[in-house]
Each structure stands twice: as structure tokens, then as C-alpha cells.
């Protein structure tokens, strides 16, 4: 829609007003900057002039001090002339030489002699400055000449200090002074200003940064005078000015930026006024849109609540499924453990071994699904164990070496050094990463074997670990190499694949490495093999985890009484039989109420407490037992492996928490800490 003249008049008037204000302010800014710069020149010049003239006074005072020492010793100090004159020259770079003129104005001594030898014996009575020198002798004041050409070459100021002792004039201590070096030190940081100093005759004896007084306006030049010789009325003139002609250009640049900003702001302001006046006609449409937006936000909140509810339902479902799947798995794996420890026909041993392998594969699949849920929901936690990364790697290799040998494969460890440095980190997650990669290599390798390279480097207080796992397996096609760490990705697909797997192991490995702030990558060639490169970093432990365990042959668990609390009869049977193989007697209860009464009536060393039971669950039962017995060991049993379940169990007073299924090896490892009796 074409704007009307009425809509344009007011914004244009505002624009013109703002432009006028901007130009007025800009002009004031230029004048202010000029005034500020003049003030800066005056202040800087005043301070620098004081420094210059203070330095001149200080140097003249050094010469007068030598004069006073000679007078106070009635001339005896002449014995130290060379040493004292040399010291003055060393400490005062403005001194070119120091000499002694006797009362007849003949140069008798000069230090240093090198370069000034031509002046020794020189009679200055015919010199143009003789009358000036004679007047100061009569006045007994220090004389300072103009910038003078020297008999031995060069130019300098000649400063004469007349010496009197034994009631008579004896001569003058005279110095040739050139203040260039000390003046340069004073203005070493003064790059944006130029300086010149001239004597009473207008001779410029010092300049810095090429001063151009004729090209710069007088208002930008600071000038002052300094009386160096009151008797002769000699005054030096000090001038300070900008070192370059375009000294206001940089300051003007900023004002031009402000001018441009002001013009832009004026344009924007007038444009905003125009659009504001135009937008008032469309307020009705905006209000309608706002109402629709509120309705949309309400819908989004409902969807968010629905998504959160779905997430909670998913977590509950996974927890329940974990419990439901692990409960029968506990029985299956438990009975397999019991059968493995019993005498059984050799013809059935192979079937039993296959059952053991299959049940553990199913358990690994359940664990992988639960691990993914924890990672993707942000609930993964890391323990702070103290362990040796190299030692744990050796343990894992020891576990899988038998599996490799059964396939006719080798597992070799190539390590740098024999380090046993201990670090702080989650040993379980570290072992899970290496185990997943090693299992993957074993699965896809039919001949040859696996070479594991281990290297560690100390960086500050951290141990940096580099591990390479190289196999001679089937390799990974190039088109799948980039997706090997994705969920449910497998090298082989279709009905003809030879190797089993869920496609979760490497995804979990990648996520765990990422959470540990490490790196993992893979290179591969089909029919040649695959190489995984892993790098992790852990803080080095300040304390050693040198725990000692009781030797197996010394552990005697006979005579120990244990209470098993579980409503699942099969689970009770499995655990009872497993404990019998360890020499432990056990009773059972089917719910929390029975457990409380049994603990009150009997002297148990340990209670295995299931979590989910009728009438009273294991958590409530543990709380009740702790009210009258806080010493008995209570270990929670559940198929729920979520962190929330473990934390809740330990929070009510359980000493430990075992997730189902429980292996014979796990019981044999952990029970001694609760039931141990050393024979």
C-alpha cells in the first residue's frame, strides 16, 4: 500500500531535526577534542620540561660536589682526582670529560685523556668565553657557556665551578656536557610528540622526533624557558609539539564514525516512527496472531507434558522389562552354574556349555539395551575407582585368551614399558570399552589373531593412554566405515550373515568414550583386518589401591547362616544350592514380614533381600530391620539395574546391591567380606 503524504511529513520532520542536532554535536565534539589535545600538549610539555631541567641541575650539582670536596680538603682531594672524575663520568652519561683549569685559565688536567689530549696545556685567556669565566670567578658562582665548539673536536656545554681554599682562588673544575643521551632516556616512550631545546643564542642542541615548529600552529606548541645562569642571564628554551602534521586525524576519525552513527540513528529513528504509525493500523491483525500464538504455546506445553510422561513410561517399561527378563534368566543361569559344579554325564556337558553361552548372550543383549537407555537419558554415572589401566587391560586379555585359543587365534599385547601407574576413574566403564572392542574383533576374526598395543604418557598430573586393537578379520567395507559406531549397525546384513550381534556394542563404546572425553576411531580393509584406535586420559591417583585379599585356600565359610528373602521359589532354590557349594547354610522367607520375624528369632550373618515382594517389599523390610539391628549385613537382590534403584536400596540401609542373575564366581568373590572366618 502506497504511503500517504500525511504519513511521511512527521517522520521527515523528525529526521531533519535529528540531523541538525547531530551536526551541532559533531561540531562541538571537534572543538572539544581540539581543546583537549591542546591541554594534553600543555600538561605533557610542563611535566617533561621539569624533568629536563631537573636533570640539568642534577648534573651540574655533581660537578659542584667535586668542587666542594676539593675545597673542604684544602686541595688534598686532588690526589683522588682521577678516581672521582672517572666515577662522575661513569654515573652521568651527560659528562664528556672533566678538567682542571688553574687560576690563570690554563688546562692542567683532563679526564679521560684519550680523545682530549689536545686540550691539555691550552691557555684560555684569549678564548671568547674568558670574560664570562672571569666574572663568575669574581662572583664565585658556577658558569655555563653557550653550545660551544671544542678545541679537541665536537661541541658541548662548558660548565665551570670556581674553587677557593686557603682564602684564595685556585682554579676551576670544568666539565664538557652533552645532554643528548639522558634526554633520550627521558623521552623514550614519547613517540607522538616532538621536542627541541635551544640555548640563549637560539642554537638547537637537542631535538627528538623531527620537530617542525614553522609548520604547526602556535596553539599546538608548548614553550617554556629555564634560567641556567643567573649572572649572565642565560635561558634555555624548551618546546614540545605533535610529532606529525596530521596529529588530529586519528581523533577526527572517531568523530566521523560518531557522525555516521548519528546519521544512521536519525534515519532509523525516523523510519521507526514511520513504521510505528503505519503499524497501528495493523494492531488488530497482531492481536489475533498473538491469541493464536498463545493457543499454540498451550498446545506445545501439552505436547511437552505428554512427551515427559512418555519418557517416564519408557523408563518404567525398561525397568519392568529388566526385572521380568532377568528374573527367569537368574534361574536359568543359576541352575547352569549349579549343574556345572555337579557331576554330570560328559555327553551332556556340551549341551550345558551351549546353554551357558546362549543365556549369557541374552544377558549381554539386555545389558546393552539398559546401557543405551542410561546413556541417552543422561543418567550414566561414573565411579571413582583406583586402578591400573595396564593391569586391567591384562586381566581382560587373560579372560578372552581362552576364547581366542578355542578359535585357533592368538591375542598378543605389545606394551611400552612395564608401568603400573594407578589412576582415578571408573574401572567398569574402562573395562566395558575395551571388552566391547575385543569381543567385536574376536567375533569377526577367523584366522590369525589380535594384536593389542598399549602406550601411556604422563601429561601434568594426568595419565594419557593410547590403545590400538588390530585384528586380521573380515574387515569393514568403506561404505559402512563411517556408520560403524551408529546404533544397530552391523557389517553383515540380510539372511545370509554369519556373525550374530545386536549392533549395540560399538555404539555404546563410542558413547562411553565420548562421555569420558576421549577419542576413538577405526581404520579397516576388507579381507585384511580392522584397527581400532582408542585414547583416554585419567587423573593419576595420589594414593595406591594396594588392597590384599585372603587366599582362597584360607577361606572357610562353613557354619555361617544366611537368610534368603525372595517370593520366587526358583530363585530361592538356585541361591540355596549355590550357597551349599560354598559351605554356607541358608534359610528362606517369602516376603518382608517373614524376614523381620526370622531376623529377630535367629542369629544370621547375612540377609539376601529381594526388592519386589508381596505384603512387604525388601526396601520397607530393610528399614524395619535397621530399627533393631544395625550390624547384620543386608544385600539387595533385584533384576532392576537402574541407578535410581541402586541408590534407593543403599539409602534405606542395604550394605550392597546385587543385580540378577548372580553367578557363582560373584558370590565367591564378595561373600568373604561379610562371612569370612580365617581357619
UniProtKB/TrEMBL annotation:
Positions carrying 4-aspartylphosphate: 610
The answer on whether this UniProt entry bears the keyword Kinase reads yes
Q: Which reaction does it catalyse?
A: ATP + protein L-histidine = ADP + protein N-phospho-L-histidine
Instruction: Indicate the segments forming the Histidine kinase domain, all copies.
Output: 320-540
Alphabetized Pfam families for the sequence: HATPase_c, HisKA, Response_reg
* UniProt entry keywords in alphabetical sequence: Coiled coil, Kinase, Membrane, Phosphoprotein, Transferase, Transmembrane, Transmembrane helix
Enzyme group, top EC level? transferase
In this chain the Response regulatory domain maps to 561-675
Write out the coiled-coil annotation as residue ranges. 286-313
Asked if the Swiss-Prot or TrEMBL record annotates the protein with the keyword Transmembrane, the reply is yes
- What EC number is given for this enzyme? 2.7.13.3
Transmembrane segments annotated in the record for this chain: 7-26, 256-276
Q: Which PROSITE patterns match?
A: HIS_KIN, RESPONSE_REGULATORY
**Record protein name field:** histidine kinase
Per the UniProt record, the source organism is Flagellimonas profundi
